[in-house]
Amino acid sequence: MHPLLYIILAIIVFEALWDFFLGELNRKSWSDKVPKCLEDVYPQEKFEKQKQYRLANYRFGLISSAVSTILILMVLLLQGFGWLHYTVESFTNHKYLQPLVYFGAIGLASMILSLPFSIYSTFVIEEKFGFNRTTKGTFIADVFKSLLLGALIGGFLLWLVVWFYHSAGSLFWLYAWGGLSLFMIFFSKFYTTLILPLFNKLTPLEEGDLKSAIENMSQKAGFSLENVFVMDGSKRSTKANAFFSGFGKNKRIVLFDTLINDLDKEEIVAVLAHEIGHYRLKHTIRGTMLGIFQTGITLFLLGWFINHPGISQALGVANPVFHVALLGFGLLYSPISSMAGLGMTILSRKQEYQADEFAANHASASALQSALKKISTTALSNPTPHPWFVFFNYSHPPLLKRLEALDSNDKD
Length: 412
Prior knowledge:
Elements: H1 3-28, H2 44-77, H3 80-91, H4 97-128, H5 136-168, H6 172-195, E1 202-204, H7 209-220, E2 228-231, E3 242-245, E4 252-256, H8 257-262, H9 265-280, H10 283-305, H11 309-314, H12 322-332, H13 334-362, H14 365-378, H15 387-393, H16 399-411
Parallel strand pairs: 2-4
Antiparallel strand pairs: 1-2, 3-4
């Protein structure tokens, strides 16, 4: 076995053990009693149900993680990725078709292997705790739509990178960065216009007291309110959410219909003020730009190492092959990617506090607190996660920390 393969195996094992360690810390931190500030929305019986839901998901996560780790280790040890390359090569030598077939086969196998876990999570765990609204027909349609979109979008982006590799020489990474950056900007701008409607129905928010209250708040916040849509989130789950996406004339605020059903008018306005805060504070644009910067660093390193024969040899291919080396690079790059992701989660938590403060100043801190408590308890979220688990995994601050920060804003 090539020495680089030992490094790849060590990375995979370490990441699996690290995730297990953090998960165990988090499990042991679960409180036995309802935090005092949640007693008004979290009766002890519901709090116990939350613990059961957390435990069910935790145990299920352990099994799915163990299976995926064992499978990837087996494929690597048995040189399965090398075997796949030679199998694809026996069918076609086309320099553009080979990578598409190679990664298409890996993607299809990954989807098939993960499908039983997705079915169990949706129709057993989520069903047991009263969250699931997904029908079998919707689930099957989602699988095929996701598969088709992944093939079309992923295939195009892979073809683009391969084309630059064969056309631009050592600077292919720079051209690929430009092409992928344009796609990221396009995707960020038009996601709710082009992609989301393929899975969910979006309808403009109806005229009435709620829309009038939202318009008054948005004027106060200096936000031009044009596109507020209600999404049929109840088609799949009882959990509530809202989000902001796009920029310029394509910026949209999307409310789940479950959010409208669960919250009162003032609470909905406060949640929308939070989403508007992300836009007014330029979080959306900064997130896109940081994503572009990270992509540039990744592609620069890819351009530096892609032709190193050891990467392909570690996966069982004697001579350097772009698509095999691309997969090997992705496995070796995982620790750097995790560190970059950690930086993004830290920044995201900071931005959530900032958006909460914006909502407190332009709507109501108490209404946002009430909304956050309802959303969290309805979803049976864990109110007492371990600080380490939060640090490494949470893109949003824990509920109790957000409530505490909003108490300060309310007093100010």
